[in-house]
Amino acid sequence: VPHPPVDSVTVAELRQICGADFVLTDRDGMQPFAHDFTEDLLYFPEVVVRPRTTAEVQAIMRLAYEREIPVTPRGGGTGLSGGALPVRGGILLSVDRMTSIISIDTENMMGVVEPGVITQVYQEAVEAQGLFYPPDPASRGSCTLGGNVAECAGGPRAAKYGVTRDWIYALDVVMPDGRLIRTGSQCLKDVTGYNLTQLFVGSEGTLGVVTQITTRLMTLPPFRQTLLVAFPTMESALAVVVEIFRRGYQPSACEFMERDAIAVAVERKGQDVPHADAEAQLLIEVDGFDADLVETQLFTIGELAMEHGAIEVTVAQEPGKQKQLWDIRRAVGEAVKSISIYKEEDAVVPRKHIVSLMRGVAAITREHGIHAICYGHAGDGNIHINILKKEMTDEEWNDRLPGAINRIFELTCSLGGRISGEHGIGFTQRPYLPIALSGDELAVMKQIKQALDPKGLLNPDKIFLS
Ligand SMILES: Cc1cc2nc3c(=O)[nH]c(=O)nc-3n(C[C@H](O)[C@H](O)[C@H](O)COP(=O)(O)OP(=O)(O)OC[C@H]3O[C@@H](n4cnc5c(N)ncnc54)[C@H](O)[C@@H]3O)c2cc1C
Known about the structure:
Bound molecules: flavin-adenine dinucleotide
Shape: globular
Mean pLDDT: 96
Strand order of the largest sheet: 15-12-14-13-17-18-16
Distance between the termini: 9 Å
Helix content: 25-40%
Radius of gyration: 22 Å
Largest sheet: 7 strands, antiparallel
Structural class: alpha+beta
């Protein structure tokens, strides 16, 4: 249903709310807000607003509700499922000016932040006080905590510390009609009514605009060591992943990269790694509070890998060497995406089934004549499958892609998996949602959306059609 256009009266009122400098309507000014990291998609809003306070967000939402104008929230714009794309035009609400770290409580071990705080900035601020906020999406230098909450972001350390959800205790949320609610508390236990906090975590900006976030923190583990292990086959690498956890080791990261992923990252960084031509590599990190225990665990994992046929184990004990290995891992995402137009899938399966998923993906991509590069968070059973357009014509791409993705997701679900582990459904994964969810499950989700956003104005057409 078309919505009323954002007219000059509405723009003037938005300027009254946020200040004229923070309301953009010119195409050049809005260009950076018209895309995220999802493929080559570009959707211009009618107006961009950059509020500074929760009260301003409330006023914007009240106005939009009254005029029935869609609003799309946006954090750092690093999303990979098109969640921040203003696909219906309307108002793009960027929280990029809401960047205060309000408090870091070293006694109760909680931090309170505004949603536009960059994840890495927060991590470094708490680390300066001897504390630790573990969720670490590879995009942490440019994504925001608000975006992390909305997507329930993961990252390498989820293998030991869980995902964003596990660290969020309270939220301030502006509802689609402009009401402000405060969910949760700074208590470690809380069964005071429904857990609204966790309803908003992972809701992809479709239920409310998050304007304040309370996270749990822990003491920063002082010891950390890293291993890069090269394997002759993908199967041997993934067998080691299962065995590491089965034996009770708790690596703080267990990342998988296939040969092509390593190759593009090495090229991008201009920095080599041992056995870059091996079929698969695992980047494993162990952290903790006891230097000897960390070292013992690391060496035992290294031995385990050698028993499973690893080619070589490279140990990085010094921070500089560790950073070099992590730089390669963190470069993979952007390096792969710079090759050509791409479509990234974010399948997650029970850890023991990653091998079946990877074998299946190889067979499906071969049959459909497409090339995919795989890497990801093997410790969580979460593999990113980047399908590359390369020299394919538009017609071939549009023809082959949907069938291949359907088959990949059918396989994922048949293995007990889900179609997104951490990137969300957003705009681009919406057609595939019925593969993973039953009709009743989808209907209950739509009822929740309807109850909280009766006019369907907040981030419309994300997750499902509004
Ligand atoms: C190179 C690269 C590597 C990545 N690695 C990882 C990874 O390891 N793990 C991982 O989980 N993800 C990863 N991502 C994906 C992405 O960084 C995450 O999904 C991140 O959480 C998005 O945050 P953002 O601030 O950029 O959000 P945006 O892209 O701006 O928005 C994402 C969604 O959040 C909503 N939103 C944003 N702010 C708010 C708010 N204040 N209130 C309500 N809704 C809001 C938007 O409407 C949208 O639906 C990666 C992306 C890239 C490009």
